[in-house]
Structures are given as C-alpha cells and as structure tokens.
Amino acid sequence: MDLQSVSTIRTVKDGVRPALRARELSTGGSGAPYEHLHLTPYSPTIGAEVSDIDLARPVEPEVLAELGRALLEWKVLFFRGQSLTAEQHAAFARHWGEPEIHPFLPKAGIPEVVRLAHDARSPGVENVWHSDVSFSATPPLGSVLRAVEVPEVGGDTLWADMAAAYDGLPDRVKEAVEGQSAVHDFLRSFGQLLTPEQVAKAREKNPPVEHPVVRTHPETGRKLIYVNRVFTERITGLPPEESRELLDLLYDQARHPEYQCRFHWRPGSIAFWDNRVTQHYAASDYFPRPRVMERVTIIGDRPR
Asked: Which is deepest, 49, 241, 273, 287, by most CB within 10 Å?
C-alpha cells in the first residue's frame, strides 16, 4: 500500500457510511416464499427467528433445504423452546458438516460440544466482535449455540453482517484492501491463558495462518470483511502503523447498528449462524449472575 492510499484511509476513516438500501445489500436471495418455514426477521439483512420446529426430532430433507437457504439469506437463525441433549445438538449441526473439536475450550459431555460457563468467579470474555476460530486454516462454516442457563436480564448476543459492512465501505477503502492478506493467530486470545510449554505444544497444530482481508463467500459469492479483533494479528507486508490503522477501520465496521441484529436468550433458545459472513459479540452485562451456553462448531473451508 502506498502513502497516498494510507492518506485516503485517514481521510475517510470518520466518514465510513452506514448501511445503504438494506434489502439491496442482503445476499440477493430469490425472495420466493418459504414452503416449510415461518420466519420472523430481526433486521432488514441479518437475523430471523424460525417458528414451529422441534430440533430434537429428525428434520425432514425439504425442511433442511429451506433452513440452508434461510441461513444464507439471513446469516443467523434463532429457535425458541428447544430441549436437546448434547448428542442431539451435535446431530443437528452435522447436517451441515463435520463438527470441530475445539483445541482450547472445555467440553460438555462429548468432544463436539463446547461449554461456555460464566459466573461471579469467571466473568464473560466474549464481549469483543469476532469470528470463531479464524486462526484455523479452515475456519468454521458455522456454529450452533444453545442456552442452558441465562440471566433474566442481560447476556444478549449481537451479530453483524460483514457483507453489508463491506458494501458500506467507500470505494477507495475497498481498493486499498483488495488482494491484501492478514495473519490470524490464537496467541492473541487463548495464548494468554497458556504456559510457554502449552503454547509450544499448541503451536504444532495451530501455526499462524494467512487469510484474505476481503473474503468471497463460497456459496453466495458476496464479498465480505474477514478480519477481527480477537484473532487477526496484522496485514501482511504493511508497516505496523499502517496495518493497525487499516485494521482498526475494518474492525469498526461491525459496530454499526445498521449491520446488526440482537438476540435475548431464554433457556432452550438456539442460534445457528454462518460464521463465514458474520461476527458476533456477547454482552457481558450480566455479571455476577451465571450464564451457561453450549456450542457445536462446524468445520468450514479455506477462505478465498
């Protein structure tokens, strides 16, 4: 990146425009009615609640097909009143691919299910905009998160549509990030909790990886911002100050409410999101009350 490009970024940094023409910035879905699902949108481009479905029972192929379509169009799907065992939780996720065995997080009964538990002794730490496990060479396709115990007030999760966030960038910034790659590394988060010996062992299976700063969704073809504060270390080939300035601009795109939806959890609620095109943020406003969640994450492909 040359000095003129950096100067351009400084000029537009405070003028990044929020969402434009919300429906036009969605995935460009067909708009055809759903035959087997009833959806209630949470925002114009991201988030929809699915009614009248029991995920503990076998899901018919035609329903699965529409759930797949809805995931691409709405990026995150919400379900209420679900009662799943760990095995049923993992079985639902397997409809979309092989579950990941997370290298760092504690498990809940079976290896595929991660347990995220917080209380007065262990405050929530997920209150940073991020995409799950982007430090992997093949980051997750998606995640299925189930509420086990949640506070009556607080503890909501927010999701951001990073394709709409990309569309909202000025053209000059799009040109500056086109073709750029960034390094993603677990050391920025999980590494802070490990001993040097544990870090060395984890490094063997989880070396730093490079992903495109602007990723193309493998199913919709949408371009989207693919850097996040939790795992992205730097933009390859840029001086540290220039890399940091450009990354800060891209990180901040997730913070526009126009690109977001928000979900209030109740016991038995489930969220299923497309991790390729979204970032999420778990509000930690419930401290010191407990919040217990269980998650299955689905292995994805290498970002292109």
From this structure: 273
Q: Has residue 303 been placed in a domain?
A: no
Query: Is 52 labeled as catalytic in the residue annotation?
Result: no
For the chain, the straight-line distance linking the first and the last C-alpha, in angstroms and rounded, comes to 21
241-296 pLDDT per residue, tens: 999 999 999 999 999 999 999 999 999 999 999 999 999 999 999 999 999 999 99
Amino acid at 60: E
DSSP 188: G
- 3-state secondary structure (DSSP) of residue 67: helix
Q: Is 295 considered catalytic here?
A: yes
Give, as one character, the DSSP assignment of residue 96.
T
> Which amino acid, residue 192?
Q
Q: Is 211 a catalytic residue?
A: no
Query: CATH code at 69?
Result: 3.60.130.10
215 is an active site residue: no
* Catalytic residue of the set 215, 217, 280, 291: 280
Locus of tokens 């693919």: 226
- Residue tagged active-site, from 211, 222, 234, 295: 295
Cα three-residue angle 222-36-98, rounded to 5 degrees: 55
Cα 134 to Cα 176: distance, rounded to the nearest angstrom:
22
What's the predicted TM-score (pTM) here? 0.90
Q: Is 9 part of any domain? A: yes
Out of 130, 217, 234, 276, the active site residue is 130
Query: pLDDT for 84-137, tens place per residue?
Result: 999 999 999 999 999 999 988 889 989 999 999 999 899 898 999 999 999 999
Looking at the DSSP assignment, which residues form a beta bridge with residue 272?
A: 77, 144
Q: Which of 59, 23, 68 is nearest to 41 (CA)?
A: 23
Which of 89, 102, 118, 132 is labelled catalytic? 132
